[in-house]
Amino acid sequence: MEAGHVRAVEAKATITEDGRLTVRVPPDIPPGEHRVKVIFEDEPATIGSPLGSDFPLIHVDAWPEDLSLRREDMYDDWGR
Fold first, then answer.
1. pLDDT at 22 > cutoff 70
2. What is the predicted pLDDT for the residue at 18?
3. What is the 3-state secondary structure (H, E, C) of the chain?
4. Residues 1, 9 contacting (CB under 8 angstroms)
5. What is the mean pLDDT of the chain?
């Protein structure tokens, strides 16, 4: 990694009884000291679960052929 380059890595971590944090990082992160930030979530993280995956899905058909999303068609003469 180049100096000054910032990269976010989401990983599963383990905290041992003596308070040590163990994290497996991607293989392209070179060995040595790195400045890192750790965020503890209230619930255990589920790696691989995309954000918003618990939102309900609503299936809709195709847009109507005559649908116009032009500003002039969506707003009146006063821009409302």
1. yes
2. 92
3. CCCCCCCCCCCCEEECCCCCEEECCCCCCCCCCCCCCCCCCCCCCCCCCCCCCCCCCCCCCCCCCCCCCCHHHHCCCCCC
4. no
5. 78
- Contacts from 51-56 at CB under 8 Å and sequence distance 24+? none
N- to C-terminal Cα separation, the chain: 50
pTM of the model: 0.39
* Residue 23 binned pLDDT confidence (cut-offs 50, 70, 90): confident
Please give the structure tokens belonging to residue 30.
């070179």
Report the alpha-carbon distance of residue 14 to residue 22 in Å, rounded: 5
Both tokens of 28, joined, read 């392209």
The residue-averaged pLDDT of 10-24 equals: 86
Q: Are strands 21-23 and 13-15 parallel, antiparallel or unpaired?
A: antiparallel
